[in-house]
Amino acid sequence: MTWRITPRDADLGRTHAQLAGWTELELVERYNQPCTWVLEGPSSVLRVFTAGTGCILHDGDYQVASGQARLFDRRTEYAGNRLQDTMTVGFVEDTRDLWTRLCYPDPAHPLTSTPSTFATAYDTRTDSREDLILGYTADNLGPDALVASRRLAQLVLPVSLGRGGTTTRKARMEKLGDLVAGLGEGWGRVRIVHDEATGTPRLLMKIDTVQDLSADVVFGSPGVARAAGYFKRWGYTLADPEMTDAIGFDANEKVARQATRVSSAAAISLWKRRTEVLVDQSETDDTAQILDALNEKLAEGATPTSVEFTVSAGGDLRYRRDYNVGSRVGVEIPDLPHEVSDNTIREVITKVRRGESGKPSLVIGTPGAERRSNKGAARLNKALLRIAKMERSR
């Protein structure tokens, strides 16, 4: 199978036939974050892309991703008497639309150049995680969003199946995409994809259940008996814990504020130290919601682990057929000094030249694990998220 790239216009219509003459594609698929890809080739081929246009990616018959062009970089130079004119176009997946809206405390309240106040401090909802994803999206971004100027008319939302378990969320000016990613963590993969099933191009939100395949889909070296997929190369990053103990105060005042603590016994045992971190929970006095938030933070901060490997051509496993982004898989790394506590596939990187199929490189680990991340960058990103939370809580 080979990759196919089909340009589309701002209204989602296909503007050209399958693109020919491109030279290289690098795609990064992410779990509950927008995928990105970079396309390289002669300018004469890639100039079909302009601001507002996009493309649809297929690997054989499988639609991998769809999205919008966001960066254009053209370079020309003379090599002797020959002019080399090349272009690089960067794309971001349609899922990014979730990050273009904030969650208003009151999604029905329009904001204008005239200052106004919201009638409520938080948009508080209790429901299944899937219902919450669809509800917040419908009111802040959907085709019937409560403020007409915020609507994405081309977006179609599915019917909820009530998945993910019940929880409570209090939204206040956080990015819709961050809220959705948090609600989908561990059970669902949320994407927005190009769809033509009705004959009219549209953007369809898809929520797929992620599977725990760790007993059957195991990656390792050829000498590992359980392995069905093998490493061509591999490496890991193991960081000391940002926290081993997450502590939260509830919404009461002063001495009346109740404190809750959850700990990671595995991180404490491995590092022989405790690190306590206060997680702001001043917006709620719901014990279940506080525990939910503390456990999420603890999962992110207790011994962050990232494992990256390229899958060898041998073995019985095939990407997308047997496993996908968001799946939990088995990994047996020689001498890894710590069990991979979160074996979720966070990223899959595929680099192909035209006419090739490419080999996927997988990044597995705790939330926030990325191929290009390092310890300092990961902690900076988390610090910025904490600052954003403080800003929206005011």
Automatic annotation (TrEMBL):
InterPro entries: Gp28/Gp37-like_dom. Residues 9-366 form the Gp28/Gp37-like domain. Pfam families: Sipho_Gp37. This is Gp28/Gp37-like domain-containing protein.
